Amino acid sequence: MDWMEQSKIIWAHMATHGWIELIVYLALGWILCTVVGRVFTGLENTKRLPTQMLKLLSRALKGIICAIALIQGLRALGIDVVSILGAAGVMGVAIGFASQTSLSNLISGIFLISERSFKIGDYIRVEGEEGTVESINLLSVFLRRPDNALVRIPCESLIKNPVTNITGSPRRRIDLDVGVDYSSDLRKVKEVILDVIKQESELMDDPAPVVMFTGFGDSSLNLRIGAWCKTEVYHGLRYRFATALLERFAKEGINIPFPIRTVLQQQSPPQQTPTE
């Protein structure tokens, strides 16, 4: 028997028992999943819908397509899919009772996606952790910390605790606290600070910058400076602004004092020599 006859026998066996239909269904499922992935990638590039919502919809559609293809393929093999689904349903109920935390995270994830309080690429702070949002899933959110570590935070924690979206707005305020010598003229100090802000082109005029007096310190008059900028230039601009402020203070003779402490040491009385 040559290889042609053997291949015909194998083909007839596969066609008779439904294996060819299984392969066809799985191939169609793979093709449809590929098409869905490309369509949603194109939608992400248009920026018309939130990225995390598009990713979740893409995953859901791919999951449905794969499930339908697998069910049809199993039916072609003559497997009773209804019985399998019934057993899976009973098992799912048992697993559901044992995984209430996962269910809570799942519901919280749905609320997070619908609420849109932050998106992929935002820098957030929650429960002592902060970083850039890398992915938003139904059960958890992944943050990339500044040291490149990846942190997984359950969605339930994000719902129960306050979340600070640091880069959620296109504008951000640079806040600097500074103290000047008690002999300083506060009017002149304010004029110098506002002039430094004016010289920096990336600091905004609207909203207007502010210079506030915050109190009398132990060795200085304390001020708080607030100046607005674009969020994407915040860190580099903050460093340049502080450097320019120090250089201008030195040029204008404005002193930033150091805390001074006076230590008094009590001298012991002189010892008397015994007399005979």
How would you describe what is shown here?
With 276 residues, the protein is of the alpha+beta class. 13% of the residues are buried. Helix 7 (186-199) packs across helix 8. The chain is elongated and about 110 Å long. The protein contains 8 helices and 8 strands, in the order αααααββββαββαββα. The chain folds into 3 domains: 13-98, Helix Hairpins (Orthogonal Bundle); 116-165, SH3 type barrels, CATH 2.30.30.60; 171-252, Alpha-Beta Plaits, CATH 3.30.70.
CATH architecture of the largest domain: Orthogonal Bundle
Largest sheet: 5 strands, antiparallel
Contiguous low-pLDDT stretches (5 residues minimum) are none
Distance between the termini: 136 Å
Q: Which fold name corresponds to the CATH topology of the largest domain?
A: Helix Hairpins
* Shape annotation: elongated
Mean pLDDT: 79
Range of strand content: 15-25%
DSSP summary, beta strand count: 8
What structural category arises from helix and sheet content? Answer: alpha+beta
Strand order of the largest sheet: 4-3-2-1-5
Q: H/E order of the elements?
A: HHHHHEEEEHEEHEEH
Estimated radius of gyration: 34 Å
User: What is the helix fraction of residues, given as a range?
Assistant: 40-55%
Multimeric status of the protein: single chain
Q: What is the top-level CATH class of the largest domain?
A: Mainly Alpha
Tally the helices. Answer: 8
Number of domains: 3
